[in-house]
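**User:**
Everyone, produce one record:

**Assistant:**
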Amino acid sequence: LMIHFKDKYLKLQKDLKKIINIKYPKIEKESKKFITPKNKPNPNASIFFNGIFIGKKNKHKLPNGVGSIIYKTGDPKYDDNDMFFGEFKNGLRNGIGKYTYFANRNIGAHPFTIPYYLGEWHADLYYGLGKKIIDNFNDEMFYEGEFSNDKITGFGNYQNISSNSE
């Protein structure tokens, strides 16, 4: 039984490294092609669900393919906005992508940590393999493993970052 768990863990780590180190950097590089220099209007930019989207679109002008979106938080106490770089399908985050939580982070307890989720998406939800930095608690945590419907499920590695840094 332990050999089975070890094999599953090693395969999970190998597959996750492919997503984080190979697939995502290619997607991020492709999405940055749509960014124009400062002070120039961007013909690819559009307002999409209270955010600004830059990237490929389908015939209905919905995000479709690689792109990035900056979300306006709607809360005046936050200056920062959340950001997503990755793949879209018919307006939904779908494929590989990274969602960075700039606005709703625990800056009082963890001023140097920026929480994020990097991994597989399906229909705007974490779904598949991914890595998530969590700063909601007094200790910083990260989870690498399987997600389903925005929840940690299945097999993975949950670790306390704060205790490792001491």
Summary: The chain has a mean pLDDT of 84. The first strand starts at residue 45 and ends at 47. The helical segments are 2-31, 161-165.
